[in-house]
TrEMBL record:
GO cellular component, one term: catalytic step 2 spliceosome
Family, per entry: Belongs to the DEAD box helicase family. DEAH subfamily.
Organism: Psilocybe cf. subviscida
This enzyme's EC code(s): 3.6.4.13
UniProt name for this protein: RNA helicase
InterPro entries (alphabetical): DEAD-box_helicase_OB_fold (IPR011709), DEAD/DEAH_box_helicase_dom (IPR011545), DNA/RNA_helicase_DEAH_CS (IPR002464), Helicase-assoc_dom (IPR007502), Helicase_ATP-bd (IPR014001), Helicase_C-like (IPR001650), P-loop_NTPase (IPR027417)
Domain Helicase C-terminal: from-to ranges: 272-448
Length: 703
DNA sequence: CTCGCCCCG
């Protein structure tokens, strides 16, 4: 048995490597000129203000390597001094240090929002933007939407005149640059959670760097949880004045979290997770358990495993309640996660990565970390997206551990040895390196950024991805042979949909089916319309879904479902009785009305095809012509481009039935165990040629 | 013959 300073803790095959007396979450203090743990801080001599603890109590502040004690108001002044003096301030601080809520308030009080200017704070997720805005507006004692507001897609709770602090999604601010390229209404832009490296964070940083050169009065605060801050500093310093950028570090306030590692690697982390949860329940005091696994399949298995063990639980032991958590849950199921455990019971929440940053559950004292995550990766050569299970990064592991210390001291059990942890990559690869760039590149072109090879990326997307995107844009006539935006390209760049879908919206004028195409465009943008639970309820749901099934395929089926939803008063009750997600349908309604406004702006008629399904299908082909496939005798399809073997996704109405013509177009393909295509519609093969020929002819002309 | 990591506009 391994000794541990927690005397109640007895699991023989664990090796306890880190037992912190203070806190896992507090930042390692580093001095300029020395390298911090696992990070390249060699050029830290350029760093002037290295440590400014944020805390209601005082703490340490280090200026040029000298530590001194300062009361809190001086820390605030120091921070503001940095923003005043430097164009770009990189703020390092873990969750809980208050940077998201406090920093914008400091800036407001210091007068950065005078003269009608606005302080923006961007978030990668909508939920964060809305909830933080609510909290800050409460702290300031103002009504949400006045002095403090938020802007996310479909929700603008802000006022042009009154709002001084604006929380928004990074995608929203990036989109705003299309309208106002200098973002002139803002005095300070704080890019929060930059370490997550969402694609819009990266694009935004790229644009902000350019804006700074033209509008030096703009201040940028980049906030990041990990010590990869030097990467951002290098980015902003590149070839400019050394005063352009500095790093400030804030100390987080978290309860201590002990971290325990498995002595040896496990071949089956799902089973191991169940075992560890079981042991925690028997050996530890009160507190809920949060388990990180990779996907729904893992989660269901783990819950099943625990449920099977429950009958053998000693009568006197705490009762264990396994609860799955992933994005596909209904609202009711999600609410169960947040209900406090009943007396004498303990919640074991078995979750995907959603609980790492998006969903916060208080009362968790024990975290079990499988060390794996599922991420989406994109292969530009085949233009195929797939889901890969990969080891997490050090940053992720730290964030997961921190979930145990939100309300009390906790313990994190890592289901892998310390030696494995030491070899983990520091950060996950940025999204921009593993995603399709067609839409982002169209938007950059619209911003006048034409030379993508010269553009200063924080991390450049693979050249192949850029070439694929340009090829796709050219094929859809969004750019000309010189790479310049066409008239339609300019308009499509403004539309919040994928290029193919936008193409469909525009050609609906020729096919006289704007009404229906609008609905289909909105429905394909929303996932999980039909709720298919496991077992008997699943079979019933399947029967309900058949009521909407259209002969032509999935696009028409989605159209039927939307029309029925509208016909029956858009009610939640109707959705429930037809196994349809009310949440998803409401979102489709919002998206449809937003897209309708764009169509009206571009003078596209919104007329009905009056039941002429052929016309509608041909309009679909105008957007999807590159996604054609032909039936093969073994029941799969072959892609028109490249002859790939494609299996129909089981949720398709064409899963059990062959396309009558033998030809289909599809909305998207994804690689799982097989390469699967989702949302299919049967077509006549010559419809494909209309568009394919036009594209090929254009290419021949060039040669 | 069977399937959904997480997000953004």
């Amino acid at each position: 048995m391994i000794a541990c300073n927690n005397k109640h803790y007895r699991v023989p095959n664990w090796a306890i490597h880190i037992l912190r007396t203070t806190t896992v979450m507090s930042l390692t203090f580093w001095k300029p000129g020395t390298a911090g743990p696992g990070s390249n801080l060699d050029r830290a001599s350029q760093v002037e203000e290295s440590i400014v603890p944020y805390a209601p109590q005082d703490g340490y502040l280090s200026v040029r390597g000298q530590q001194e004690r300062l009361p809190i108001f001086k820390h605030r002044e120091k921070l503001l001094y940095c923003v005043e003096k430097h164009g770009v301030v990189i703020v390092v601080g873990q969750t809980g240090c208050g940077k998201t809520t406090q920093l914008p308030q400091y800036l407001l009080q210091a007068g950065w929002a005078d003269d009608g200017h606005v302080i923006a704070c961007t978030q990668p997720r909508r939920i964060a933007a809305t909830s933080v805005a609510g909290r800050v507006s409460e702290e300031l004692g103002t009504k949400l939407g006045e002095e403090v507001g938020y802007t996310i897609r479909f929700e603008d709770v802000s006022s042009k005149e009154a709002t001084r602090i604006l929380y928004m999604t990074d995608g929203m601010l990036f989109r705003e640059t299309l309208v106002d390229p200098l973002l002139s209404r803002y005095s300070v832009i704080m890019v929060d959670e930059a370490h997550e490296r969402s694609i819009y964070t990266d694009l935004l940083l790229g644009v902000l760097r350019k804006i700074r050169k033209q509008r030096p009065s703009l201040r940028i605060v980049v906030s990041s949880a990990t010590l990869d801050a030097t990467k951002f500093m290098d980015y902003f310093l590149h070839g400019s004045d050394p005063n352009e950028c500095t790093i400030v570090s804030l100390e987080g306030r978290m309860y201590p979290v002990e971290v325990a590692y498995l002595a040896e690697s496990t071949p089956d982390y799902t089973k191991k997770a169940a075992e560890v949860v079981w042991n925690i329940n028997l050996q530890q005091g009160p507190g809920d358990i949060l388990v990180f696994l990779t996907g729904r399949e893992d989660i269901d298995n783990c819950c099943q495993e625990l449920s099977d063990m429950l009958p053998s639980l000693p009568a006197r032991a705490t009762k264990l309640v396994p609860l799955p958590l992933h994005a596909g849950l209904t609202t009711d199921e999600q609410l169960r996660i947040f209900q406090p455990a009943a007396p004498g019971t303990r919640k074991a929440i078995i979750s995907t990565n959603i609980a790492e940053a998006s969903v916060t559950i208080d009362g968790v004292k024990f975290v079990v970390d499988s060390g794996f995550v599922k991420i989406r990766v994109y292969n530009p050569t085949t233009s195929l997206a797939s889901l890969a299970t990969v080891p997490i990064s050090v940053a992720s592991a730290t964030q997961r551990a921190g979930r145990a210390g939100r309300t009390a001291p906790g313990i994190c059990y890592r289901l892998y040895p310390k030696a494995v942890f030491d070899k983990l990559p520091l950060t996950t690869s940025p999204e921009i390196t593993r995603t399709d760039m067609t839409t982002p590149i169209l938007q950059l072109k619209s911003l006048g950024i034409d030379d993508l090879m010269k553009f200063n990326w924080v991390s450049a997307p693979p050249a192949e991805t850029v070439l694929r995107a340009l090829e796709g844009l050219h094929a859809a006539s969004m750019i000309d042979e010189y790479g310049k935006l066409t008239r339609i390209g300019e308009q499509v760049a403004e539309c919040p949909v994928e290029v193919g879908i936008a193409r469909m919206l525009f050609s609906s004028k020729d096919y006289k089916c704007g009404e229906e195409i609008l609905t289909i465009a909105a429905m394909t943008a929303v996932q999980d319309i039909f709720i298919i639970p496991d077992g008997a309820p699943g079979a019933l749901a399947e029967l309900e879904r058949r009521k909407f099934t259209a002969e032509e395929g999935d696009h028409f089926t989605l159209l039927n479902a939307y029309n029925a939803f509208t016909r029956y008063g858009k009610s939640a009750g109707w959705c429930k009785s037809h196994a349809i997600s009310f949440r998803a349908m409401s979102r489709a309604v919002s998206i449809r009305s937003q897209l309708k406004k764009y169509m009206q702006r571009f003078d596209l008629p919104i007329e009905s095809c009056e039941g002429d399904s052929k016309r509608l299908a041909r309009c679909l082909v105008s957007g999807y012509w590159r996604n054609g496939a032909r039936w093969a005798p073994d029941g799969t399809y072959r892609s028109v481009r490249g002859g790939m073997v494609l299996s129909v996704h089981p949720t398709s109405v064409l899963f059990t039935r062959k396309s009558r013509t033998g030809w289909v177009i599809f909305h998207e393909m994804e690689e799982t165990k097989k390469t699967q295509i989702r949302i299919l519609t049967e077509i006549e093969p010559e419809w494909l040629l209309d568009h394919g020929h036009a594209y090929d002819d254009k290419r021949k002309e060039q040669k």
